[in-house]
Design goal:
Keywords: Capsid protein, Lyase, NAD, Virion. This protein is 43% helix and 16% strand. The longest helix is centred in the first third of the chain and has 24 residues.
């Protein structure tokens, strides 16, 4: 039996990881540390019996130290972060506080308990980061590898880049056993509806505009959250301390292609699923029209990176990682989940 601390485990990726880890390791105890800000939702991990939610702030170093000691925890999986680029533009201070100071607090606690007071037993601090730390690619540039120069272009990506450097420094300076993974754009169940895919799905169901930044041709690599969880699992079990691994979905697509897929999928769902028009009467598809009519172009986001792409050669070779979800299959699963779990997302729209 292992004891695990998952920070931000009531959020989107962290919550999915808690579900995944519990399924893969049913004997493990999982402590979830989450401050339950707007994107943290206790219901995301409801029903995971071995998960204990501790409401608290990762900047509370004493609390983290106590959790590590009292629960004999030897692994931290660090998801907790402010992550929405738009919010980082309007209010960068929260990103500095959580992503940089919060990560430093966790590292200090881990160093104190595992190294300064520890017995020398194996431990692992796994840090989840983003491909956005690498900046923006041109249309013909090679994909991001782990050695790509950091060139963050938003307060969000700059704060994540800083946290990556702190994690690396604690390994090289103090000997903390760390790994870092930089992932591409995640999608799937339990994603807060401010990100593109859940926002556009729910707007389509409610007949609201689909706001498209700029020309809609910004390119992202799309990673189903379950594949990301598998990649993190591989980092924990097979990753080498001090190493960084890029985790991608193998689905590099312009935003417009993703939006077109959402519109087509929603239209098809209203044809195939009985009663959907009664549940969502404001959707164009409920009236036999196309969801495409909701597309609206808006002013581009400040500093909007043009293209991200992940080179996952290292993860494939060293971790035996490969994504298992195609974009089409992952999107079908995601749409189905949102249609079947209105009780989870409906309160978020009211909030």
């Amino acid at each position: 039996m292992a004891n695990l601390l998952v920070t931000g485990g009531a959020g989107f990726i962290g919550g999915n990881f808690v579900h995944y880890w519990a399924q893969q390791n049913p004997g493990d105890a999982v402590a979830v540390l989450d401050s339950l800000t707007y994107a943290g939702n206790e219901s995301t991990i409801a029903g995971v019996e071995q998960a204990e939610l501790v409401k608290g702030d990762i900047r509370d170093t004493a609390l983290v130290e106590a959790l590590l000691r009292d629960r004999d925890i030897a692994s931290i999986v660090h998801f907790a972060a402010e992550s929405h680029v738009d919010r980082s533009i309007s209010g960068p201070d929260a990103f500095i506080d959580t992503n940089i100071l919060g990560t430093n607090s966790l590292l200090k606690a881990a160093r104190t308990v595992w190294l300064d007071e520890g017995s020398g037993k194996p431990h692992r601090f796994h840090h989840i980061s983003t491909d956005e730390v690498y900046g923006s690619l041109g249309p013909d540039d090679p994909a991001f590898s782990e050695t790509h120069q950091y060139q963050p272009n938003s307060p969000y990506s700059a704060s994540k880049a800083a946290s990556d450097h702190l994690v690396r420094a604690y390994h090289h300076t103090f000997g903390l056993e760390v790994t870092t993974s930089n992932c591409s754009n995640n999608y799937g169940p339990y994603q807060y509806p401010e990100k593109l895919i859940p926002l556009f799905l729910l707007n389509a169901l409610h007949g609201r505009d689909l706001p498209i930044y700029g020309d809609g041709m910004n390119v992202r690599d799309w990673l189903h959250v379950e594949d990301h969880c598998r990649g993190i699992h591989a980092c924990l079990t097979r990753g080498q301390p001090g190493e960084t691994y890029n985790i991608g979905g193998g689905a590099e697509l312009p935003n417009m292609a993703v939006i077109d897929h959402i519109c087509t999928s929603v239209d098809r769902a209203f044809v195939e699923i009985a009663g959907l028009a009664d549940r969502y009467p404001d959707a164009p598809a409920a009236k036999g029209r196309s969801t495409n009519e909701l597309k609206t172009f808006v002013t581009d986001r400040a500093g909007h990176d043009r293209r991200y792409a992940i080179d996952e050669t290292k993860a494939r070779a060293e971790l035996d990682y490969a994504p298992s979800h195609s974009f089409e299959g992952g999107m079908a699963h995601t749409l189905r989940w949102y249609l079947e779990n209105e009780s989870w997302w409906q309160p978020l729209l009211r909030g």
